[in-house]
Amino acid sequence: MRPKILIASYILWCIMNYSFVRADPLTPIHQPGYCSMRGNCGSGLIPLPCVANEEAALPDTSQFRELLVDTCGIEYRAGPVCCNSDQLDTLIDQVKKAENIIASCPACYHNFLQFWCSFTCSPDQSTFVNITAVDDSTPPAVSQVDYWVGENFGSQFYDSCKDIKFGSSNGFAMDFIGGGAKNWHEMITYMGRRRPFLGSPFQIDFPVMDDVPTNNISRYDADGKSCNDTDPAYRCACIDCEAVCPVLAPAPGAGVDCYIGSLTCWSFAMLMLYLSFVAIGLILLLARNKLVGRLTQRLLGINLLNRSDSRRFYERLALSEDDDQIDETLLDPDSTPRRYWLNSRLQNWFYYQGLFCARHPWLVIFTSFIFVSLASLGWSKFSLERDPINLWVSPSSNVLAEKKYFDDHFTPFYRTTQLFLVSETSDPITSGEHLESLFMLEDEIRSMKSDGSNYTLEDVCYHPTGDVCIVQSVTGYWQGDIDNFDPDNWEDELDDCASLPSLCLPEFQLPIKPEMVLGGYENQDFTKSKALIVTYVLQNSVDEGDIARATEWEKTLLEKILNHVNERPEWKGVRISYSTESSLEKELNKSSNTDIKTVIISYVVMFIYASIALGRLSSFNIRRLLIDSKFSLGVCGILIVIFSVSTAVGLFSFTGQKVTLIIAEVIPFLVLAVGVDNIFILCHEYARRSELGEDESIEERAAKTLGKMGPSILLSSLSETIAFGLGAFVTMPAVSSFAIVAAIAVFVDFILQVTCFVSCLVLDAYREKNNRIDCFPCVRIKAPEVLEKEGFLQHIIRHYYVPVILSRNVRYFVCFAFLGLFTIGLSLMPQVSLGLDQRIALPSDSYLVQYFNDMDQYFNVGPPVYFVVKGANLTEKEEQKKICGRFPTCREKSLANILEMERKRPAVSSIGQPASVWMDDFMLWLNPNIGCCRLKNQPLSGTMSKRSTQQIIKGELKKIFNRPDWELCGPYDDDEQCFNCLAENQISLDSIPEGQEFLDFYDLWIDMTPDDNCPLGGKASYGDAIVSNHQDVTIEASHFRTYHTPLRNQEQFIFAHAAAKRIAREMSEELDLEIFPYSVFYVFFEQYSYIVSMALQILGLAIISIFIVTSSLLGSLRCGLIVMSVVIMILIDVVGVMTLWNISLNAVSLVNLVICVGISVEFCCHIARGYMVAAGSQEERAGKSMIDVGSSVFCGITLTKFAGVIVLAFTRSKIFEIYYFRM
Questions:
Q1: What is the pTM of this model?
Q2: What is the pLDDT of residues 861-890, one digit of tens each?
Q3: For residue 1026, which phi and psi values (nearest 5 degrees)?
Q4: Rounded CA separation 705/246 (Å)
Q5: DSSP 131
């Protein structure tokens, strides 16, 4: 059986081989002077070439020869050709479509004509064109050929065309003629694809260079033209040819970062600094060793062991009168400081003030209540500021002024509603079923009516060309009509349209780039996209009525369709994320409402803790506990905190200012930290005085308590008030308003604590003395006597913490350890990122979180950026030269050329697409070779004479008929009834009209809707880009649009803004024009251009003020310097932790850093003053300060804040989790 199969196979191979040998080739002759095809054949709507492997023939008419030379060049002025007049007409029709796109670069257009003229009409056509297939018509028509093109011509052709811009679409001509090709073979392969009505009517194959031609076939490899050709007739402008562009100066900051190994130079320097300090410290420690001391004395003659003179280097800090009273308590009521006069006077003042408050408690409380009530009347004007611009942008901001200018002169940046349809399976989203479902979803949205006023999409959408809304969707390739969609052939149609968007224009007549409507595809394989993107562009306005109309439609869209669209069966396996223009504000408000509950719980926890912790556990007897409890006193202290915040907000609101969420959510935290600490200090000091058993009245005891602790409370409160008050000079409204309210609240809290709380303390002391139950003072019970007992925390600090922390070795270890943390913080500080990701401000379950994630992953287009030119009269030729880029007479560094050169270095410019330069498109529109600007001979009535036509050409257009009431010819108007706007065969800058004539033609251009015959019409792309002034005959303002590269994170947004500002500044200096950049996000990111300097300013001023106040009130520069140094170390360490935890520097974290300074002062000042007034050696004074004051500070601040912050871990808001819990 096996031999029979082998024999049969051999026979079949022989038959097939014989058939191929005997088959007649379609193009048997391949030699110069012979054609492969000629004339038109076929029975279809589109004519195909006839097979004609015969000698080339001479043109049959002189008109044919003349038209051939005009089209293909002087090389066809004599000799035979391989085309007839019908083929030439078809060729002209085809190349005319490309002329509108590539004619701006003469070299490319010349090569394009050479390429197709050689293919169609060359007398040597058979030497490089081989017919490979024909159809079944009679006579047979060509259906497939091989076009052998060589490397030399192919490379020149591609290089001359690859950089040409198609301005109105911010795209490249290569996207239209070559499908975005990356090399010459990809470009011509795309041109040769069979696409009836869209491209070639038959398949043209281009063998690769590895294929070797046979049968006398050779490659077409004539010389083409270069875009930087020495012949000015073919030389292209810089905007279309990188080779002729000047080189821009290096952008600032484009240098390489400094590294030593894996460490930055800054981090390495900090490491060396720390090691140097450690080395010096170890040397000093070794010098104290007896053995090392003797060796040093013997070798160097220096006695390091004799320290008798060392005390002259130290300042005596104690303010107490008797240094021999070692055993006295820190705040002995009988001690009177004598060393520093200010301290003595402050103690006297607070003593008498405390005595008055103690003797007249109800008067003080009533007066305080009246003051708080009057100040709180400002709540009647209370309002919450939610506008992000009013929160984060300075009223004097340049960017805000530029935004206002843009909104007033053009139109506010449009509103967008956007959908991402993402496949949740491994299959692509693009399928016939999904596309049909998308058509139906869009029809539903289009016909939906808003609740209330019945607005439809047409009522609120942006429609620059008339009544057609701009909806950027893949369905636009079928004009948004499901009847145009072929379920069986959609893949080819989608691939063709996405590759050449200009041939599949949507209803609004602007090309839809595939990256705007498709996502997740690779290597231009559009049919394998993972995401569909639909963007509805809505009209924006400064009119509140228009905004309300759009907001109503958006709200209805969310409620009726988008919020439930994922539940529909047709979208099974598809995730739809969405956003409207008003979504972000609504979700942020939702986040705020969610946060309020968490914040209230946090406050309640802190209030309960503070109220309970104020009491002392002297006995486990229940009766004694009911009397010793300080819960009601704690509530009074908490109420004082609330009253101080209420007073501050009331006074702030009374001035007409709006309160921010930062004030509402953060100020109580801050004031509670400061206020509770002072409450604990006063209560604990009063309790210590009671334990002394001195025979003194309650009023006297309260007065002495305030006399001792009042200066310490004043020190911390005054430091914080001044520190926060200096923040009012910051230009960012959110930070300055926070600083003002914080300063007022802290100061009012101080006033109420040293007055109202002292009175409450006295009343509570009387309650306790009379054995009355806490919270129920009317109930009196019998209870055991108070057992004087040291508090648990104070006991731990006295017997364990202080002995350990003050031992010599531990002191050195602590100093070196915290110095190490300080240097680590310094090394990490430059790495702190800037920005505030808007996803952080949203609730974790918000639908916008997934939307922003999908946008980052699938949307590959950056935000648009507009370079606005103010006050330049672009009707004048000298000003036009500063803008244009298409003509040799344009300035070498014109606006168009600079933007193009910046686009070619996106790493430093963040510009990702070519700029839309309306001046260039307007000039091309005037080009008579393009055929867009043709006027009818009879604009009014009568017959246009030749002399009148010539007058119009000379610029006397308005003089003839006294008004420029011209009518443009359409594509089907008779040529005899029309004449070109400009008479020159080749347009130049000198032929461009000026003055009033410029505006007359401008009016025609700006009112023209682009279409297939003339895509250069200005209405769609530039309808709102130019502000003309016919009265003064000038262009008041205009903008030039480009796009940033895709921006994925805050760092890229910040860099893009900085780069755009730099580019505008350099262009303004170069061109002597007023130019500024505008993008919708700039107004929010300007703050990051100065937030670092602003942070250094506000924190630096706060720290300096702390040093001044501390040094003044303590009477010691050294003590003030120590307090300031510790505050700085804490601040630097916090910034270092921000880097490690990826917490960015922004207005929210800056407010937290200011709070950090305030709380740090609260920690340090009380302990520092405790040290200053103590007696004994340095170690003893430090120990006493920690025992008597440190425990109060620990209970008052640390545990209170810890209890409150722990609650924030359960919030759904990322901003609270990161900035108020973690930070």
A1: 0.80
A2: 999 999 999 989 999 989 999 998 887 778
A3: -135, 135
A4: 79
A5: E
